[in-house]
Specification:
With 464 residues, the chain is of the alpha/beta class. The protein is built from 15 helices and 13 strands. The protein has a single domain, classed as Glycosidases (TIM Barrel). It has an eight-stranded parallel barrel with strand order 1-2-3-4-5-7-10-11, surrounded by four helices. It has a three-stranded mixed beta sheet with strand order 6-8-9, with helices on one face. The longest helix is centred in the middle third of the chain and has 24 residues. The site of 4-nitrophenyl beta-D-glucopyranoside has 12 residues, from loops.
Length: 464
């Protein structure tokens, strides 16, 4: 910790400090209280899809342990907690019948949070699509967007009197391209046309849900993206800059332009038209997608470098049509995910969004890192400890980068660390630990890592 930049920095008054999680990654209890199956249940039970055959069946058992988990949040001094609602708990078949026991759970969670003075920030969709909707085409079907808006209204009707901040989707880039393009996430399809169609229906679902939430009186409505900080291997190469433009189009502008400028970019549509006839785009959709938002969530972990290299394989199903572009192997300091650690890219990314899409407040809704944490043997107190200086350094560097963006005029409202708890890291199963709190899965014991103690002090001081 001594190696950290000692320069003290303070965040603006009212800056929101918190942590984030997602339903399928922490809740467990997948068969309880009428919850229906989701695409992640199906996917994780398909051999070869998730590391070691891990599933979310137990996860952190948060469904039963939420009172002590909220107590932990209070102990850390969190002001906000971002969690997702599991659609298949609310509508087990994806549409129609509502399961009251599912709503009851989030009702209790929200009351517990508010009782501790912690602001709930709801994500309505963090990837656990009801399997029944996938069976009818999932996000490649326009109907899914409409059902999503129905579901959003159902959840708001129950919790809207106590929850102010509502975000629709988490990282539609992952849901569309990893789910339907590369197939490394559920539902595991590998079809570029499906991926691009899913992008549109996710955005449409966002717009319809945003409209419904607004009509129901939600005060803050937003969406969370994982915009890529795309950088050229050689900044002086025009060809590398052209590669940046394409990848930026497929990852960032395809979402940000319709959301915040009301139109898909022409160059991106032209690219997409190589794979689909664009029949899924209907008159009025862009207007729906551009429903005004009050908050843009930014999830950031690592930069994306690209270079123009004739013959290079490109980004595969996650970036359809990028043959001739190389995504080089990450270099320098890496996290356990193999992701580069480059805080400057966060400053640049936030500044770019604020410049090109002015007027919408930003919040870092996820930032954090997986490292090879080890629970140190129990001390006399029996508590144990988890030294994670590497995570502290990562968080410190990225908080300084966020602060630098604020100093450059970016309207950044808060920072939510990913994640509160070690959890089910999607295709990586439980082997990658992102938590500031260690979870000993066999016993379900929680142990604050050093980074959790450190974060509590950061929050207390409103700075570093
Ligand atoms: C995000 N990628 O996922 C999610 O919002 C979290 O649920 C997740 O646990 C966290 O980041 C850490 O991975 C991503 O391959 C998963 O580019 C994969 C990618 C990006 C984000």
């Amino acid at each position: 910790m001594n190696s950290l930049d000692p320069k003290p920095i303070t965040f603006p008054e009212g800056f929101v400090w918190g942590a984030a999680t997602a339903a399928y990654q922490i809740e467990g209890a997948t068969g309880e209280d009428g919850r229906g199956p989701s695409i992640w249940d199906t996917f994780s039970r398909t051999p070869g899809k998730v590391y070691a055959g891990d599933t979310g069946d137990m996860a952190c058992d948060h469904y039963h342990r939420y009172p002590s988990d909220v107590a932990l949040m209070a102990e850390l001094g969190l002001r906000a907690y971002r969690f997702s609602v599991a659609w298949p708990r609310i509508q087990p078949a994806g549409s129609g019948a509502v399961e009251p026991r599912g709503l009851d759970f989030y009702d209790r969670l929200v009351d517990e949070l508010r009782g501790q003075g912690i602001d709930p920030i709801i994500t309505l969709y963090h990837w656990d699509l009801p399997q029944a909707l996938e069976d009818r085409g999932g996000w490649t079907a326009r109907e899914t967007a409409e059902r999503f808006a129905d579901y959003a209204a159902v959840v708001h009707r129950r919790l809207g009197d106590r929850v102010g901040t509502w975000t629709t989707l988490n990282e539609p880039w992952c849901a569309a391209y990893l789910g339907y393009g590369s197939g490394v996430h559920a539902p595991g399809r590998q079809d570029p046309a499906a991926a691009f169609t899913a992008v549109h229906h996710l955005l449409l679902g966002h717009g319809l849900a945003a409209r419904a939430l607004r009509a129901a009186g939600a005060s803050t409505v937003g969406i969370t993206l994982n915009p890529a900080a795309v950088r050229p291997v050689d900044p002086d190469s025009a060809a590398d800059q052209a590669a940046v433009r394409l990848v930026d189009g497929l990852h960032n502008r395809i979402f940000l332009d319709p959301l915040l400028r009301g139109r898909y970019p022409a160059d991106v549509l032209e690219h997409v038209a190589r794979f689909t006839d664009l029949a899924h785009l209907r008159d009025g959709d862009e207007q729906t997608i551009a429903a005004p938002i009050d908050l843009l969530g930014v999830n950031y972990y690592s930069p994306t470098y690209v270079a123009d290299r004739p013959g290079a394989a490109g980004g595969g199903g996650a970036y359809p049509g990028t043959e001739g572009i190389e995504f080089p192997e990450p270099t320098g300091p890496l996290t356990e995910m193999g992701w580069m650690i480059e805080p400057d890219s966060l400053t640049a990314l936030l500044a770019r969004i604020a410049r090109d899409y002015p007027g919408v407040p930003l919040m870092i809704t996820e930032n954090g890192a997986a490292f090879a944490d080890k629970l140190a043997p129990d001390t006399v107190t029996g508590d144990g400890a988890v030294p994670d200086a590497d995570r502290i350094a990562y968080l410190d560097g990225h908080l300084r980068a966020a602060h630098a963006a604020i100093a450059r005029g970016v309207d950044l409202r808060g920072y939510l660390v990913w994640s509160l708890l070690d959890n089910f890291e999607w295709a990586e199963g439980y082997r990658k630990r992102f938590g500031i709190v260690y979870v000993d899965y066999p016993s379900q014991r929680r142990v604050l890592k050093d980074s959790a103690h450190w974060y509590r002090e950061v929050i207390r001081r409103n700075g570093l």
